[in-house]
């Protein structure tokens, strides 16, 4: 067995059963997370408290023995560390003060790494504490997805505010993506230096863009981040997760240079199989199969293992686990993946 199986898969090797983790694996579906969360105060207090951030990062590892651990934080600490106002309200998700074109021109990152020091401290402590065979994943949001929240000030279903802003204020929008790409790259580099083995870039909203916008707002900024990270750490794998990229997944990997590709649950398994010929894929169980459990879960897990099990696969959900997921269903999924035989 390689020391960290997921790293081997990201080099293009197949392992069966595949390494396994879940996006949003530390979160509200776990009673122990809800307990820690109560003690923390606000959600951002939890992200910036290394003791508590380490505690919640470890919870799913201790419970399920996943092959990878993802740092507990949020993609919106980047705008927060750039001085923007970011809050999380119970039941409403993130709330930010919408950024204007003049404010974009004035954005600066003087205090960026100072503000994020507690995150780097959490990564250092995690690498020391995790089992040696567990891969540690650092992450950031992709510039487009982070920009959607900065412009609208909250989540929306189609990102109309950010799309309109991009058409009406092209120079300001371009600068925003550039500031986010440069700072996100620097953020990932620091996470790697603190002990992250792999980094993942979450582009949760890449599915709402036309061709030209996808190219300019998703592909180019992520390619820029990959270039900057590789210039310093050429051997650290980067996973891109352009959720909803559909027919663009293949060219996304080629043009951005990401090592591994996170695929959402709408990607046909046959397409995923073709993507696997270019490198590792990660995914793609519908998170609602995990909520439903039973036959729906068993069938979903079985189909992925059958279609993708003989290539480089990191078993995961096709998006984050939802709070209403029963813990027993996660246990059933882990058991099915781990006991799979070809
Ligand atoms: O995966 C993990 O366990 C690591 C932690 C993690 C969180 N958010 C913790 C979190 C990661 C990797 C993220 C990424 C993230 N955050 C994304 C990209 C992935 C995706 O799910 O699309 C996005 C778009 C965000 C922004 C964000 N943060 C939203 C929209 C929300 C509200 C929705 C929700 O699930 O509550 C958050 C809050 C958030 N981030 C929570 C957690 C555990 C829940 C808040 C709480 O506990 O009170």
What's this model, at a glance?
It contains 16 helices and nine strands.
If you had to describe this structure to a student in words, what would you say it looks like?
The protein is of the alpha/beta class and 342 residues long. It has one domain (5-338): TIM Barrel, CATH 3.20.20.210. Helices cover 53% and strands 12% of the residues. It contains 16 helices and 9 strands. The protein has helices at 5-10, 31-40, 43-47, 50-64, 77-81, 101-106, 112-129, 143-152, 160-168, 170-194, 211-232, 249-256, 269-276, 287-292, 294-308, 327-338; strands spanning 68-70, 86-89, 93-96, 135-141, 198-203, 238-242, 260-262, 281-285, 313-317. A 7-stranded parallel sheet has the order 1-4-5-6-7-8-9. The chain has a two-stranded antiparallel ribbon with strand order 2-3. Helix 11 (211-232) links the parallel strand 5 (198-203) and strand 6. Helix 2 runs antiparallel to helix 4 (50-64) and helix 13 runs parallel beside helix 15. The model has no long low-confidence stretch (mean pLDDT 97). Coproporphyrinogen III binds next to strand 3 and strand 4.
């Amino acid at each position: 067995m390689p020391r960290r199986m997921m790293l081997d898969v990201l080099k293009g090797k197949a392992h069966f059963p595949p390494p396994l983790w879940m996006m949003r694996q530390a979160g509200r579906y776990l009673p122990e997370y809800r307990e820690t969360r109560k003690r923390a105060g606000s959600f951002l207090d939890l992200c910036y408290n290394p003791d508590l951030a380490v505690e919640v990062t470890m919870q799913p590892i201790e419970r399920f023995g996943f092959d990878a651990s993802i740092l507990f934080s949020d993609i919106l600490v980047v705008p927060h560390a750039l001085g923007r106002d970011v809050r999380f309200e119970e039941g409403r998700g993130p709330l930010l003060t919408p950024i204007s074109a003049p404010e974009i021109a004035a954005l600066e990152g003087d205090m960026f790494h100072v503000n994020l020091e507690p995150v780097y401290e959490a990564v250092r402590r995690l690498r020391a504490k995790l089992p040696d065979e567990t891969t540690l994943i650092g992450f950031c949001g992709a510039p487009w997805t982070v920009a959607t929240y900065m412009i609208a000030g909250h989540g929306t279903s189609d990102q109309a505010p950010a799309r309109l802003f991009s058409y009406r204020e092209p120079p300001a929008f371009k600068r925003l993506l550039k500031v986010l790409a440069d700072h996100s790259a620097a953020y990932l580099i620091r996470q790697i230096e603190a002990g992250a083995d792999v980094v993942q870039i979450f582009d949760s909203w890449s599915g709402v863009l036309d061709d030209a916008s996808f190219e300019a707002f998703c592909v180019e900024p992520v390619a820029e981040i990959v270039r900057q990270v590789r210039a310093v750490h050429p051997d650290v794998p980067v996973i891109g997760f352009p959720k909803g990229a559909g027919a663009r997944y293949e060219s996304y990997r080629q043009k951005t240079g990401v090592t591994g590709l996170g695929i959402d649950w709408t990607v046909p398994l046959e397409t995923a199989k073709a993507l696997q010929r270019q490198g590792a894929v990660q995914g793609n169980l519908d998170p609602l199969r995990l909520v439903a459990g039973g036959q729906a879960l068993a069938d979903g897990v079985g189909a992925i293992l059958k279609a993708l099990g003989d290539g480089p696969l990191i078993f995961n959900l096709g998006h984050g686990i939802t709070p209403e997921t029963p813990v027993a269903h996660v246990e059933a999924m882990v058991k099915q993946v781990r006991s799979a035989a070809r």
